[in-house]
Amino acid sequence: MKSKENSQIENKTLSLIIPCYNEEDNIELFFLECLKVFGEDNNIEYIFINDGSKDNTLNNIKNLILKYKDYNINCLNFSRNFGKEAALYAGLKFSHGDFTAIIDADLQQHPKYVKKMVDFLKQNDSYDEVACYQEKRKENKLISFFKNIFYSLINQVSDVNFYKNASDFRVLKRNVVDAILSMPEYFRFSKGLFSFVGFNTYYIPYKVEKRKHGKSSWNFFSLLKYAIDGIIGFSVFPLKISTFVGVMSFILSIIYLIIIVIQKITVGIPINGYPTIVCLILFFGGLQMIFLGIIGEYIGRTYLETKKRPVYIIKDKLNYKELEGADNEKLVER
Ligand code: UDP
Ligand code: MG
User: 102: burial class by Cβ within 10 Å (0-12, 13-18, 19+)?
Assistant: First the structure.
């Protein structure tokens, strides 16, 4: 017979947060894979976030809710595309499980790993979170090269430690979810937020599958923007570089001035400095513009952050009861 403590652990509930942007062909496939892994487990709360998809994703989620009405399937329908970070934030706000999993809808991250992560947490009470990392990255060599630079750079300049290759594919206990939700910032960079809150995290390797349908919404420039967001969001080091460079060039200019004065007095130098002056003006002009740009990035974010605009706007909250017209059991925020 199971001990009381054991059955309590087994009865713990799980929420799955599934951000969806143009995933019409993946919705049901994803759900069927979950069924294969979790069987008819009724302790699972599915939260699909339709992040302003332009295809049939929303309808397919509605059909899924109606077709599998015995399961706890919910949908937060955004008023437009707010981005994956916003979708995750909304999902966390509406999740009620003892464990909360974040997983992509495109089946690149197989639900079997969620089970593995949850089982680990059930057996290891001292851990608060399990995150998956990609053992082998199946991506463009150039992108891989830049990602390596990003990780070494951000780990140098930021106070929090970024675990290389760890994704947002993870399972969190309630205390971690609450800690993440205590940071309502507008510019959200999950990798940084997960590192920032700390907690005892266990990392397990996983194999990234091929996207089942549709295409990734990332390209080189969006990744670059994401990396800059990460560095600016979690470090003020770029602001300090200008002070350092300013002080260094001031010291060098004083030394150069002394040398010129001595040369002038002792040997006398012909006045022939036009190219040098042009180069120096261009060099320092450029440098000042770069630092103005860096300061601008911070000020711009501060400006937008002070407006306290919502991270996302929900148009509809859907579940079976809601779709059937009985709106007494609407999805509620925690
Ligand atoms: N996604 C989202 N909003 C967006 C872009 C993506 O909710 O604006 C979702 C997408 O549907 C998928 C997950 O985020 O479930 C990961 O996106 P994607 O597959 O494009 O990223 P990749 O796997 O290439 O890193
Ligand atoms: Mg993907």
Answer: buried
Does residue 241 surpass a pLDDT of 80?
yes
Domain range for 259 is 237-307
Per the model's pLDDT, the better-predicted residue between 63 and 284 turns out to be 63
The residue with greater pLDDT, 312 or 146, is 312
Say yes or no to pLDDT of 109 above 90: yes
* DSSP codes, 277-304: HHHHHHHHHHHHHHHHHHHHHHHHHHHH
Mean pLDDT of the chain: 86
Atom of ligand 1 nearest to the CA of 49: 7
For the entire predicted model, the pTM comes to 0.82
Nearest CA to ligand 1 atom 22: 216
Average pLDDT score over residue span 313-327: 80
Return the DSSP state at 327: G
The per-residue pLDDT for 246 is 81
Do the Cβ atoms of 13 and 96 come closer than 8 Å? yes
Residues within 6 Å of ligand 1 by CB: 19-21, 23, 51, 81, 83-84, 87, 104-106, 108, 216-218
Instruction: Answer whether 116's CB lies under 8 Å from 207's CB.
Output: no
Q: Into how many domains does the chain fold?
A: 2
Q: CB-based contacts of 293: which residues, under 8 Å, 6+ apart? A: none
Neighbours of ion ligand 2 (CB under 5 A): 104, 106, 108
CATH number reported for the structural domain that contains residue 46 in this entry: 3.90.550.10
**pLDDT for residue 193 is more than 70:** yes
Q: Which residues contact 176 (CB under 8 A, 6 or more apart)?
A: 128, 129, 197, 199
Same domain? For 108 and 229 the reply is yes
3-state secondary structure of 167: strand
